[in-house]
Design a protein that fits this description.
This protein is an alpha/beta fold. It has 9 helices and 6 strands. Helix 8 links the parallel strand 4 and strand 5. Helix 3 runs antiparallel to helix 4.
Length: 230
């Protein structure tokens, strides 16, 4: 890419590990539920349905995940629903906040290189306080000129960011691991996008990659490959 580009970069599962901790909480939940007939995949399907509905109302983050687990437990438990059991279930989610923040390999070196030549914006969705906490713990904030935390990363949020920052769509790239939140809506807004796959991307963020607009779509194997692309 010739000249300075505007790079919008996702956070969770692009810069640092995130979904693995939600998966660990789910595994604890399945063990505690101890359902006599439903498989983990079947329980996951019920939880996905609850999460999809609740995300539109409450958004994302560990606290909301705890609420979703409680609702799933209340729906599926084969025993009396006791308040202390609901607290135990919520605790599986709250422990996510205590997990170490692990940067994905090559992230910091790549950001240091890119920030010297391009305009970087950290663009993430989720609970604002939780996302800010992770940004602070990561130590990566210094590489970004701007940070935007939104409720949902859809076409409207990309359009708003373009207007707010006066971005040139032809020279703006969204970089992330989620087809649903990072790639497809950015392309719908006329931006370019770079797909950086993650093996443990959340199920509800997976969908077919599409290129509905004029922007370019590039896929790389790992985050550090961005140094060669830009």
């Amino acid at each position: 890419m010739h000249g300075t580009q505007s790079l919008l970069i996702d956070a969770d599962d692009t810069l640092w590990e995130n979904n693995i901790y939600f998966e660990q909480a789910f595994d604890e939940f399945v063990g505690f539920l101890d359902h006599s007939s439903l498989s983990p995949a079947q329980i996951r399907a019920v939880l996905d349905e609850i999460e999809l509905a609740n995300s539109r109302i409450h958004g994302y983050g560990s606290l909301n995940f705890g609420r979703n687990l409680q609702q799933c437990y209340a729906r599926l438990a084969e025993r009396e629903i006791r308040p202390e059991d609901l607290e135990t279930v919520k605790g599986f989610a709250l422990r996510i906040l205590e997990q170490p923040l692990v940067l994905i390999e090559g992230v910091e070196e790549t950001l240091a290189d890119l920030s010297a030549r391009h305009d970087l914006t950290l663009f993430t969705k989720g609970h604002p306080d939780e996302q800010r906490m992770k940004i602070d713990r990561s130590g990566l904030g210094r590489y970004f000129r701007h940070t935007a935390i939104v409720r949902e990363k859809d076409r409207a949020s990309y359009e708003a960011l373009v207007q707010e920052r006066g971005l040139d769509r032809a020279r703006t790239w969204m970089i992330g691991n989620s087809p649903k939140s990072d790639i497809n809506p950015a392309l719908e807004a006329g931006l370019n996008a770079v797909f950086v796959p993650h093996a443990r991307t959340w199920t509800l963020e997976r969908t077919r990659l599409r290129r509905p607009g004029p922007g370019r779509l590039v896929a790389v194997e790992r985050f550090s490959d961005l140094r060669e692309l830009f």
